[in-house]
Automatic annotation (TrEMBL):
GO terms for cellular component: mitochondrial outer membrane. Keywords: Hydrolase, Membrane, Mitochondrion, Mitochondrion outer membrane, Necrosis. This is Serine/threonine-protein phosphatase PGAM5, mitochondrial. SUPFAM superfamilies: Phosphoglycerate mutase-like. It is found in: Mitochondrion outer membrane. It comes from Emberiza fucata. GO terms for molecular function: protein serine/threonine phosphatase activity. Pfam families: His_Phos_1 (PF00300).
Length: 226
């Protein structure tokens, strides 16, 4: 529903100057800017924590977040905001990254929390959540995709650079949806902790994937996937 034609009420079209007026209104609704979306997977965390509050970052995870923050800062981009999952590991990763990006506002959201987006195809034997989880988490993660991954608003004049700190399942699903690949294939992708995935959304709605799960800025002994 973000195509310019979808934003116009055609019933109000002036009959006499129809085509000319329509072209003008379409022009007014067209996006002008490009959105750069940086999807960051949280750093390594304590898997043995019972509740979310106990699943804090490990010492290595904190190092990974520092490296990711430095990498993002080294790009020399003017980041507009950091939107992060409200889960502890994503929040802690965000706090460390944001030290390297002073002045960039942080926004927490439940939409980006980890979950089971859609039943994977092919299935895997080591991970089989309850079927109800796909309905509960899937609707939320799809809502996150629709809410955050879209072309720029027509009022946006300059290109934007946004960071989203969340989880592997969420990022993998978003990448498949954004590229119009079968979303059931999300589990075929693998992401390291603290990795950077870079999506570009052009004014015409076309999407390009510049990097997927990049951790080339980390020393080999600091790279994990847990």
């Amino acid at each position: 529903r973000r195509e310019p034609l979808a934003l116009i009420n055609l019933k109000k079209k002036n009959e006499e100057t129809g085509e000319e007026e329509l072209a003008s209104r379409l022009d007014h609704c067209k996006a002008k800017a490009t959105r750069h979306i940086f999807l960051i997977r949280h750093s390594q965390y304590h898997l043995d924590g019972r509740a979310d509050k106990d699943r804090t970052l490990t010492p290595l995870g904190r190092e990974q977040a520092e490296l990711t923050g430095r990498r993002l800062a080294s790009l020399g981009l003017k980041f507009d905001q950091i939107i992060h999952s409200s889960m502890t590991r994503a929040t802690e990763t965000t706090e460390i990254i944001s030290k390297h990006l002073p002045g960039v506002k942080k926004i927490s959201t439940d939409l980006l929390r980890e979950g089971a987006p859609i039943e994977p195809d092919p299935p895997v034997s080591h991970w089989k959540p309850e079927a109800v989880q796909y309905y509960e988490d899937g609707a939320r993660i799809e809502a996150a995709f629709r809410n955050f991954i879209h072309r720029a608003d027509a009022k946006q004049e300059e290109d934007s650079y946004e960071i989203f700190v969340c989880h592997a399942n969420v990022i993998r699903y978003i990448v498949c949806r954004a590229l119009q690949f079968p979303p059931e294939g999300w589990l075929r992708l693998s992401l390291n902790n603290g990795s950077i995935t870079h999506l570009v959304i052009r004014p015409n709605g076309r999407v390009a994937l510049r990097t997927l799960g990049d951790t080339g800025f980390m020393p080999p002994d600091k790279i994990t996937r847990t």
